Amino acid sequence: MSSTTNHHQTLKNILAQRDWDAAQSLWLDLATQLSDQPDFLLVLVKEFADAGNVKLAAELAALVAPTLQAARKHHEWLFALKLQAQTNPSDKPFRADLLAAYQQIHAAEPRLPAILQVTELDRPGSNLPTAITKTDTLLALATGTYCQHKSWGFGRVKTFDTALNRIIVAFPHNPDHALQLAYAAESITPINHEHIEVRKISELDHLKQLASADPVALLRIVLLSFQRAATADQIQTALSPAVVTADQWKKWWDNAKKLAKRDKHIEIPARKTDRVVLRAAPVSQQDELLTAFRDAPSLIQKIKFIQQLFKGLDDIADPDLLLQEFHDGLTEAIRKLTAEKAPTRIEAALLLDEILNHQRAPTHEKSPLVAEILGNIRILPGPIDDLSAAVQKRAYAALKSSNPNLLLDNLNRLPAKALDEIADLLAQTASRVTQHIQNHTASLELLHWLCKNITAAKPPAWMESLSRHALLTALINAIEDSDTRSATKKVRDLLLTDETLITDLLAHSSTDAIRDFVRQLLVSTAFEELDRRSLMARIVKEFPFVQELLVSKTTKEQALVVSYASYEKRRAELDELVTKKIPQNSKEIGVARSYGDLRENFEFKAAKDMQKLLMRRRAELELMLTRATPTNFAEVSTDSVNIGTTVTVTDLATSQSQTYHILGAWDGEPTRNILSYPAALAQSLLNKKVGEEIIAAAETGTLRLRLDRIEKARPEILQAL
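Below the sequence we write its predicted structure tokens.
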């Protein structure tokens, strides 16, 4: 390796560390030692600019520029002046040098005066970096050259007219598109004859041959056309359909990527949206991956990187050493992360085992770090709940191996998917599960899991001892006791979507037990009316004898005649429930919940019990008011006994007279002889006429009465209701 190469590499290493003082000191030493090599010194100056220190590059370029001018290295001199111009110096001598350099290089270019006038490079006070960019653009746009516009696409310069200060470009949309030079300098990008768009015109057949014989070579041409980096979409647009047909593109691109991964100059990104890069110097795939892993700033990004790596592991020649490096680096990153980041630490620790399993000679050993991190968990699901579903599954599997007692101790807190993972351990907890069901303390997740599995084709043997009826009753109570409908959605959906679940759970129950359950379901607040009817239909189909409960209920739900006074009382009671008592109860539930563990919270249980009473009373009142027809009894007929009449009867056994007021269904008041019309005595009197004898049942036996008189209920009776 030559001394200049060594010096160059040393400077690049120092610049990579951004040690500007050391880099400048080295360059100045080399400028003294190699004063006869100004072009090499200029190459080193460019490294400063590439490293991001434009100001220092400009200062060093100013030191080497006079030597380059004296050596008549005009192109190098102009390059040094352009580096200086990045800081936009304002002195006139520098602008004069810049113009002189252009004139020396382009002495035979007749377009130069017109170009300099348009770009204002020769005007004092103009922005030098902008003027230089415009000048270079217009010089490159000679007749016959190619260019690109961001909206109009690829084109060819047909004419450069200095007299009219314009160029004519043949674009796909317009073969004679005229642009003023000032606009062209800002909006058009010159492209050389090696650009993919130019080569598609000049040598399309050769490109098609490359696509078939050497896809990587074709990919290099595209990447060089995009300044060494392009997205997959940009590559496809450049090549398809002109070079690779649309129907063959996916197959071609997959093969090209596979081959390019073996090329040390090409970087294929893990994400489709990232750019494919053509490197200036070769880098091995292993070194590239290892550098990317080490540069990942956070543990989460290291995890994502390794997960992406697994997808392309087959393309790596010798992955074991790389995997070991990742294993060690991930272990170190986990230990550095604080315990508060438990979910991320758990996911990373589980990834350690996966790394070992991906080795070509898997050890099937478990990383001790997994058990160590999971061992810090005391209450489940805890941090595991913050992981993705796939990682949760692996975490519970790891806990099952390392600490099964923790899982069993937290049985009533686990989600159903975790119970699936430890199903074979649950036989040890059969008595505890039974106790939770009997005490109505089982969680909704546990109840959901039990209902699904106890009715399976082959339920676990230990479930045979569980009472299915008790399980169903516990489930209904848990839904009623839940604070929100969203919390019970999963179990309600299970009951409603599984057509046979509710009848399967009732299959071994006694007739009386089924009747009791139906009564509970009919008044339960756990379900909307339509859902309740759907469940009842399934029960009636399987157990027809419960139909009698529905018939009784239907009979009772016939329309009722009630007084306005009693109707208003019940409506006022409903209004108080809805606007005062139920909201107050909700507040009490919220306060009680703040006290802690709901399973041992007396205040919460009491408030929830009151909630059930209030909600049931609300349902009763709403049903009653829906069925009721209020009246003032003004239009009542006295031809026979009707609702709203006052009757006088004589007991034929004692010859004593008695007056009764037969009023609405909610008006009964025996102490004042006011009978509600559904009462037994009132039913015996209804529709009878004066003079008729009536046989009526009484507590002391049968009464024989004679109807002596019928009149409208007196106003004072109605007003006192």
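The radius of gyration is 46 Å.
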